[in-house]
Amino acid sequence: MQVDWIEVRDFRNHRELSLEFGPGLTAVVGPNARGKTNLLEAVSYMCGLVSPRVTSDLPLVRWGAQSAFLRGQVESSRGRFLIEVEVRSGGQNKVLVNRSPVRRKRDLRRDVRTVFSSPEDLAVVQGDPDQRRRFMDEVVRTLWPAKEGVAGAYERVLRQRNRLLKDWQGPGEPPGLEAWDAELVAHGTALTKLRAQAMDLVRHRAAEEFLGMAGEAEGLFLVEYAPSVRGERVEEEFVSRLAERRADELVRRRTLVGPHRDELALSVQGLVARGFASHGEAWAAAVCLRLAVARAVAEEIGERPVLLLDDPFSGLDPERRAHLAATLAGRGQVVMAVPDESHVPPGAVVWLAKEGGIVPG
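The structure corresponding to this sequence follows.
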């Protein structure tokens, strides 16, 4: 899979930008606030129709403009795709693929895939559990775009059920709770199974990536999905757990069982990464999680996704940096942003991020 070219207008700090990409490794070099990360975000948004950095599209439109425009060509085993996106500061965005309107985001995500790694991924390793749950759902969406609605469906049911519990003032159970139980179990079971499948594809690959980066002495990185509802028969166990926690739920007026209480257990050298990993270990773990996702996607669909790496080396010691750099040439098309030329891997095409644009080095 490869992005051939992209045209950007009024996206973040880029007033106008046009670039052609090669098939291998490209390094965009320059100081902060020159638009390196914004370029990677533009490529990611064009291919996935969602920003990997913000939840709202409003910050994507350059200050003073009404819309941002992205246009580019992507080639994959499924064909060649001309993608045109208008990101509007107000109202619904407009998306065309090969001149035809796109009704559902997953229709594009099925054909083109990117994996985006950034320093913000440290929150997956060191942050709260909701960061890791969000990561798991991103992996599900990347692996199986047709299943991306499962997490949203569960969240909608959860909100309705919580509202029912919160608003009920009478004795006993609120009317209709059993119906919401059935919905919660159905959608929660589907989400639990998807997360389990996704993490099963990621965990071994993440461990291998960390071992290759850190070496035998420091190469133990474990990724384990810890669902709220465990067991081989998830649906039956879900029903049983809800019955067990019913009295507690009525007192606390919230749902206490389900994927919204899942955790992804991450450990380095046998210690919980969130509290005990060094900064370098946590940084390496965060990068390895994304590299593992890219490998899982490649094996799932039969071709490598476009890999977008924002400042991957800064938190790594020289040895880990060298190990990672040595592997990048074999990962398909990789576009990376780095602060200076000392971080450029061997064999990379160099672009320079300067005031006003990005140009070949």
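The mean pLDDT is 95.
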